[in-house]
Amino acid sequence: MTQHVFKPDLPPPPREVGLAGWLRANLFSNWLNGLLTLLGLYLVWLIVPPLLDWAIFSADWSGETRSDCGREGACWVFVQVRFGQFMYGFYPVDARWRVDATLWLALVAAAPLLVRQFRHKVRYGLAYLLVYPWLAFWLLHGGLGLQVVPTSQWGGLMLTIIIAAVGIAGALPLGILLALGRRSDMPAIRVLCVTFIEFWRGVPLITVLFMSSVMLPLFLPEGMNLDKLLRAMLMVIFFEAAYIAEVVRGGLQAIPKGQYEAAAAMGLGYWRMMGLVILPQALKLVIPGIVNTFIALFKDTSLVIIIGLFDFLNSIKRATADPAWLGMSTEGYVFAALVYWLFCFGMSRYSMHLERRLDTGHRS
Amino acid sequence: MTRVKSTLAVLGAAALLGASGVTHAGATLDAVKNKGFVQCGISDGLPGFSFADAKGQYQGIDVDVCRAVAAAVFGDAGKVKFSPLTAKERFTALQSGEVDVLSRNTTWTSSRDAAMGLNFTGVTYYDGQGFLVNKEIGVNSAKELDGATVCIQAGTTTELNLSDYFRANNLKYTPITYDTSDESAKSLESGRCDVLTSDQSQLYAQRIKLAKPDDYVVLPEVISKEPLGPAVRQGDEEWFDIVRWTLFAMLNAEELGVTAANVEDMAKTTKNPDVARLLGAEGEYGKDLKLNKNWAVQIVKQVGNYGEVFERNVGKGSELKIERGLNALWNKGGLHYAPPVR
Q1: Which of A249, B38, B193, B315 could cross-link with B151 by S-S, CB 3.0 to 4.6 Å?
Q2: Which of B8, B44, B90, B214 best tests the A interface by mutation, with the highest count of A CBs <10 A?
């Protein structure tokens, strides 16, 4: 009896595995792809080395004045010298710790909400939302023993984050209420919400801000000046709430009718039905839409430039008008782009993380 | 400078006049004294006129005018708060009482003076539209610019002035319009346009932005009149006089040789009656303006005379290095002429 012995498998042909194989499969699978790859490489070669050279190798990194910069590469000295202003605007230097404290407080106080084992999340979250804004306002604005810093001195990245954070914190609840109102059975509330949403969605944010700054003061009695920042924040909240409302409405419509009926059958009233059954499902569905709106909001904050508020971008613009640093706009704007990208990318990653964590497998 | 004839602003002015009537004379000075500072509207960033330095302090000619008003009213140039305003907001801010003085490189024109509910108090800087060209193209006069590609900023009177000038001189040109001054400077540098046009004061700032500023030259022609000055609300003559005479005091001080360094000595020792009247050593001229006797001393001591302010912000003492030109005193070939204090 002869035993059949299989011959050992031959190794795959060398051109199909390893680096060569990968290159072949992905970059040079046919002559057209090969050509496109070469063209792409050529473009990268054209763009990347000069960019790196400008931004890193030929750049000037340290110094005090413009004369410390050669003109070949980027002059990061400009960003370095003005860094404080880019971050805090004209906030007094010896009070800047208060801004940092506000930020750290927000993060530290929010930490328990991220711990899964923590039981009283809802109660804690509500308390946080009720207490923290006052504390933040006190720290930033002053009073009660702290030096008062009027909002006209706020600026830089700090102002951008404040407008975005207040906008998000205000627009989300208002938007959810508006979405519920739009689907309400009560005609008065429905009409009110529809009007509100359609009005704010129908005008560009830049017009709204402009109106708030140019027309509103004329209608107020003389001597009564609403704070410019407050005006801007209210406008951002109303505007973004209208968008959030429509995103949330999309989520509400996606919930099957059976869920409503089941909740009603269990004897839940309207608010408990929404709060315990419908909204948790609906909001989870529309996380990408909501985060999308938030990212847009974060970038839209730079529109306050037209009403003379010095947010991050406008602080950079203002610094480029200093005769001692004329011609540094490229460096400034590249820096701005980097910071905006970091924030928006961070938000986007966080939303993906949230989606994965809250995924309870209802989809297909 | 930018002359935005916005219907909005005119409408706004009409609404204001209709709603609140004319302000009472003297109201502004009282209000300013009550709150303890002058609220001054400035530009949101214009080299030499108003900008923030690395320490976060505002500087520039427009800023110094505000500080001088504070020095005249309070004897302390620090008692001023600045509101950076965009070109579109500036008139509303003044009309609605958000600012007391608008010192924001605003061109004095008939429509603004008459129809917008404001009054210009004088001219702090005689500006005009000019041209910046690369020396290589070998042009010495704007008249030789036939067929040139011209970089301009959108939405300002610059465009209209340019087309008027070229049409009047029978020249052809191709305009390229940009949104910001940075873009137009880069465009001139890369050779996309042959010439850049803007107000002369800004051309010097544009030139610094270029990699090789010495290769570029500002042509001698000035094709428009742009007298820049501070403005106040209409209907308050007292406040109008204070702002107007603050500038006159600075001009008179320069004419009489009074500087920040010697003003105190001169106030005590001067034999020149003009100087004595200006500095309050003789007569009660401050009182007429409802100011302190030594109002002009405070202005010159804390802010400087007009020449000092000019050189510090846009002249020899600055990066811009602008010549006095039209902005010299009347007796030195310029246009600045202040009525006497007497």
Answers
A1: B193
A2: B44
Taking the Cβ of residue B217 and every Cβ of chain A, the question of whether any pair is shorter than 8 Å is answered with: no
Q: Taking CB atoms and an 8 Å limit, are B54 and A329 in contact across chains?
A: no
Buried b (16+ CB within 10 A) or exposed e, A174-184: bbbbbbbbbee
Q: ipTM above 0.85? A: no
| Class for the domain spanning B7-126+227-322 | alpha beta
For the domain spanning B129-218, the CATH number is 3.40.190.10
Nearest to B258 by CA among B219, B288, B301: B301
Residues written for chain B: 342
Indicate the residue of B20, B56, B211 with minimum beta-carbon distance to A222. B20
Q: How far is CA B168 from the centre of its chain?
A: 29
Question: Domain residue spans in chain A?
Answer: 150-358
Cα–Cα dist A190/A330, whole Å: 49
Phi, psi of A186 (to 5 degrees): -85, 115
Q: In the sheet where B173-178 sits, what is the strand order?
A: B173-178, B148-153, B195-199, B129-134, B216-218
Which residue, chain included where needed, has tokens 């008003």? B69
pLDDT values of chain A reduced to their tens digit, one per residue, 364 residues: 678 888 888 888 877 778 888 888 888 888 999 999 999 999 999 999 999 998 888 888 888 887 888 767 888 998 988 899 999 988 888 889 999 999 999 999 888 887 878 888 888 888 988 899 999 999 999 888 888 888 888 999 999 999 999 999 999 999 999 999 999 999 999 999 999 999 999 999 999 988 888 778 777 776 666 788 888 999 999 999 999 999 999 999 999 999 999 999 999 999 999 999 999 999 999 999 999 999 999 999 999 888 888 899 999 988 988 888 888 888 999 999 999 999 999 999 998 988 888 877 655 4
Do the first three CATH levels of B7-126+227-322 and B129-218 match, i.e. the same topology?
yes
Tokens encoding A307: 């009403």
CB contact under 8 A, A323 and B48: yes
Q: Give the residue from A310, A326, A329, A331 with the most B CB atoms within 10 Å of its CB, the best one to mutate.
A: A326
Q: Which CATH superfamily is domain A150-358 in?
A: MetI-like (1.10.3720.10)
**A71: nearest CA partner in chain B:** B211
Per domain, the residue ranges of chain B are: 7-126+227-322, 129-218
For residue B203, the distance in angstroms to the closest alpha carbon of chain A comes to 12
Q: Which residues of A touch B19 (CB under 8 A)?
A: 218-219
From chain A, pick out residues whose CB is under 8 angstroms from the CB of B85. 308
